[in-house]
Design brief:
It is a single chain. By secondary structure, the chain is an alpha/beta fold. A hairpin with a 3-residue loop joins strand 12 and strand 13. The chain starts with a strand and ends with a strand. The strands form four sheets. Strands 1-7-6-4-5 form a five-stranded mixed beta sheet, sandwiched between helices. The chain has a four-stranded mixed beta sheet with strand order 8-13-12-11, with helices on both faces. The protein has a two-stranded antiparallel ribbon with strand order 2-3. The chain contains ten helices and 13 strands. The protein binds acetyl coenzyme *A (ACO). The site of acetyl coenzyme *A (ACO) has 22 residues, from helix 2, helix 6 and helix 7.
Length: 326
């Protein structure tokens, strides 16, 4: 059994935060941010959480697929910024959209999360276990940022993207996924420290309380992506028995325009084959690929039979590249 891509949906919080605004709260400028990253603005939630945004994106995808929510067999939410430790985000989405027959869980793989989630859904469908999956990426990164740290707070944004996929007789789905935990310190954000009657606060790292923020070794991440991602793209294209000429679009995680330009250059592909919306939304981690696909879908840029590369990369380190047929 193969998998077909039925519909997409996305949700972005209304509040726009532009580079000018950030230059008033940290020592930065529109010139620095846009020339180093390509980002000009991002959306920041002032109330809606990860599950709420995920459910809004999901509701749009379900409506466009014109399916009964009760037909959804599985909901996977890729996120590194859930609202709660319990319940998981996918269960909250389930209740909101009325998909009461679905099995629901979250998946944490930072900016590779959506590609990993899609591969998980594909594995269930390929094995004949489930027929219809709702796959979502949703992030509230604004709550994980130190808004006094100019090296990180300018990069990220909030948002959610969703997709309905279904079992199909035909289709192409080839992947190269990988992880390297030895480079885990390149991108970090602690959750809770061990705290119980046997462990006092003084024993936690530097006696801090439980709040921590995203820290990133920017240049390390940049070098890793530019070295690894073109290779994985070439590998999946070969696995699928295709050539680069067959690829309509490279839909990469929207981290940084310079990263995408470097990947395009390494592959000797025109930058026009790398759609971008990071100028408007910044880096939304696991949500960036499904948000971009939804925007492309609405512009009628996706046609049945198009071969598209999806590629996510980020904390862990993790990476995942998949060739799909739309
Ligand atoms: N405004 C002004 N100056 C800044 C800012 C800012 N917002 N941020 C950093 N600087 C300064 C630094 O303090 C430093 O100053 P110094 O030379 O006086 O010490 C100088 O700019 C250069 O800093 P670098 O970190 O070397 O800047 P770089 O050119 O590497 O750009 C960036 C930083 C944009 C983060 C880049 O390394 C990058 O894009 N890395 C990839 C990161 C990424 O894309 N991560 C996402 C993938 S993973 C995920 O999505 C979770």
């Amino acid at each position: 059994m193969e998998m077909r891509f039925v519909s997409t949906g996305s949700y972005l919080p209304e509040q726009v935060v532009d580079n000018e605004f950030l230059s008033q709260i940290v020592d930065t400028s529109d010139e620095w941010i846009s020339s180093r990253t390509g980002i000009r603005q991002r959306r920041v939630t002032i109330g809606e959480g990860t599950a709420c945004m995920a459910a809004k994106a999901a509701a749009k995808a379900i409506a466009r697929a014109d399916i009964d929510p009760m037909d959804i067999d599985i909901i996977i939410v890729a996120t590194m910024s859930p609202d709660n430790c319990l319940p998981n985000t996918a269960c909250e989405v389930q209740a909101e959209v009325g998909a009461m027959n679905a099995v629901c869980f979250d998946l944490s793989a930072a900016c590779s999360g959506f590609v990993y989630a899609l591969n998980t859904a594909y594995s269930f469908i390929k094995a004949g276990i489930y027929k219809t999956a709702l796959v979502i990426g949703s992030e509230v990164l604004s709550k994980m940022l130190d808004w006094n740290d100019r090296s990180t707070c300018v990069l990220f944004g909030d948002g959610a993207g969703a997709m309905i996929v279904q079992a199909s007789e035909t289709g192409i789905f080839e992947s190269v996924l990988g992880s390297d935990g030895t480079r885990k310190d390149a991108l970090t954000c602690a959750s809770r420290y061990i705290r119980n009657p046997l462990v006092s606060k003084e024993n936690t790292p530097s006696g801090e309380d439980t709040l921590d923020y995203v820290k990133m070794e920017g240049q390390e991440v940049f070098k890793f992506v530019v070295k690894t991602i073109p290779l994985t793209i070439q590998q999946v294209i070969e696995k699928a028995g295709c050539t680069q000429e067959d690829i309509r679009y490279y839909v990469l995680h929207q981290a940084n325009q310079r990263i995408l330009e470097s990947v395009a250059k390494k592959l000797k592909e025109p930058i026009e084959k790398f759609p971008m919306n990071l100028d408007k939304y910044g880096n939304t981690s696991a949500a960036s690929i499904p948000i971009l696909l939804d925007k492309m879908n609405k512009k009628n840029m996706l046609n049945r039979g198009d071969k598209i590369i999806l590629s996510g990369f980020g904390g862990g380190l993790t990476w995942g590249t998949t060739l799909i047929e739309w």
